[in-house]
Amino acid sequence: MLNAGTDGSMVFEPAFVHAQAGDTVRFEPTSTGHFVRSLAVPEGAKPWLSEEDQPFVVTLAHPGLYFYNCPPHLMMGMVGLIQVDEAVNRTAATAVMKSTQGRIYSHGARVDSLLALVK
Ligand SMILES: [Cu+2]
Q: How far is the CA of 22 from the centre of ligand 1 (A)?
């Protein structure tokens, strides 16, 4: 979680991770003022919400797409996507991502860039 990265300001870096079921992903609060909240998770997976400025580890037990954001910086396009194995919830996750995109004022194209990385 960074104030500035290779893709501009207010970013998760990397914003896209392709993982396998059972993997863990750790969110590092490298800059201050950030946290992470899931917006779409596969069926059976628990939504998550971290504490501001705290490292956060999520275990990805279920295949599918996990779309998340940093709530204070959603308007600035601070979003990310994790794909675990097959994107079994692609339709549902894409709908959430597209509706979220409408609430982003800058860097909304990041949503499309993330979707383009889904295999
Ligand atoms: Cu943030």
A: 26
